Amino acid sequence: MASLIDLANPTRFMRLSAVLLPWLAAAAAVLLVVGFYLAWFSAPPDYQQGETVRILYVHVPAAWLAMMFYSMMALSALGTLVWRHPLADVAQKAAAPIGACFALICLVTGALWGKPMWGTYWVWDARLTSMLVLLLIYLGIIALWRVLDEPSRAGRAVAILTLIGFVNVPIIKFSVDWWNTLHQPASVFRMGGSTLDPSMLWPLLILAAGFTLFALALHMVSMRAEIMRRRVRTLTILEAERLDRLAAQGAPA
Amino acid sequence: MRRAFLAILRRDLTLAARAGGGGELALVFFLTLVVLVPFALGPDLNLLSRIGPAILWLGALLSVLIGLDRLFQADEEDGSLELMRASPLPLEAAVLAKGLAHWLTTGLPLALATPLLGLLVALPVEGVLPLVATLAVGTPALSFIGAAGAAVAASLRRGGLIVPVLVAPLTIPVLIFGVSAANAALGGTVPFRTPFLILAGLSLASVTVGTLAAAAALRSAE
């Protein structure tokens, strides 16, 4: 927790993230290259699904990340509301578009896989629907960020909305267990171990790690951009006030 | 404290009864939506009676959502929200009074108007009363989830569509159980009681969570 408090200083965060970012990006690139090589060339085609199983190497990490980023946003929302951590709302704002992108990737890859396998791009299955709702909540949060212009007030308003929307995340996770519909139940993280063969599990895990690091790197870039954007905003306001004062002093003369 | 609560409630009810209140406009909007559906689907009464509960629920949901952005905005503009924040009455109680007034002027009239609108979609007689009951029990959830969204957007000059966009995904569980309870009354394998009790539970939970969240949002916007 001490490290989180240290990071409360934006300048220190900028310095630390500038050092970390290249390493994070490089590690993500290596893992993604290795993972995609394994997934495309070394992993065997599925005995039922054939080559389309390779879509799932992107689909599954995207789904995990969409939920992970929402959970991170909910934690940041707590950070904004409870601890008033100055970077929490920056982290939250930066995470929203990335999470939304992964939710969209998950839905699109799922649809592309669903057409040959299930015979349809879309069904109103519990897990598909709850993922779509997650995307809608993401879009609502992004829209709210865009209409509220004052960052600190916007941060707290969005934080409350994020926490209310967090109800949906456990629903997505357990939807396949609660409603026994078309989407298959959990097969990687389950009681009694994974049902995947190691030849498919390893590429999936490597790609998941690669996508996670890639997403975290994107998140860091986006946070840095947001901090700089706020600095520019503050400087612009200060400059405008200075010019205003100068004009007021000059007016009587 | 009770006097202040009743004063806010009475004030909102009076405002809604006078011109521009929005309560009766929600009803007219509901009627318009239900009238539009047969034009889109064709006047097939068998089809309409099968999807009647869904049409009426969707209409009620949209009618509640459409006026929500003004719930706290008007008070923010004329300064009465400042007075509520400064008063010894907890902000939660003020939100509860305002949400209750909103439900009494939109949700309840919508539920009471359903039997008439049911005729337009050829709703079977035995389905009318359960549908009214599901709307009466379910619309408080819409009002209070909506209050949380409206509070988040209270200080916006041009809120417009943002409140429905924020609130609509959160109302999906209410819609699911409201429609399934209304359909269960028309026959099917599930008894009416099961989804109806879940709907009542959702409603109670939404009133609590919505009130707390709306008060927190209003407080943070100071």
Determine the most extensive contact between two protein chains: A-B, 21 and 22 residues
Number of helices of chain B: 10
- Structural category of chain B is mainly alpha
Radius of gyration of chain A: 22 Å
Whole-number count of domains of chain B:
1
Give me the CATH architecture of chain A, please.
Up-down Bundle
SSE order and pairing:
The complex is a heterodimer of chains A (253) and B (222).
Chain A: H1 2-6, H2 10-42, H3 56-83, H4 88-118, H5 126-147, H6 151-165, H7 168-178, H8 198-250
Helix pairs in contact in A: 2-8, 3-4, 3-6, 3-8, 4-5, 4-6, 4-8, 5-6, 5-7
Chain B: H1 2-17, H2 23-41, H3 45-66, H4 70-78, H5 80-86, H6 91-120, H7 125-152, H8 162-167, H9 172-184, H10 193-220
Keywords:
heterodimer, A: 253 residues, mainly alpha, Four Helix Bundle (Hemerythrin (Met), subunit A), B: 222 residues, elongated
Outline of the structure:
The complex is a heterodimer of chains A (253) and B (222). Chain A is mostly helical and 253 residues long. Chain A contains 8 helices and no strands.
Outline the structure in words.
The complex is a heterodimer of chains A (253) and B (222). Chain A has 253 residues and is mainly alpha-helical. Chain A has a single domain (22-181, 197-222), classed as Four Helix Bundle (Hemerythrin (Met), subunit A), CATH 1.20.120. Chain A has helices at 2-6, 10-42, 56-83, 88-118, 126-147, 151-165, 168-178, 198-250. The longest helix of chain A is centred in the C-terminal third of the chain and has 53 residues, at 198-250. The relative contact order of chain A is 0.15. With 222 residues, chain B is mainly α. In chain B, 80% of the residues lie in helices and 0% in strands. Chain B is elongated. The interface between A and B is medium-sized, with 21 and 22 residues.
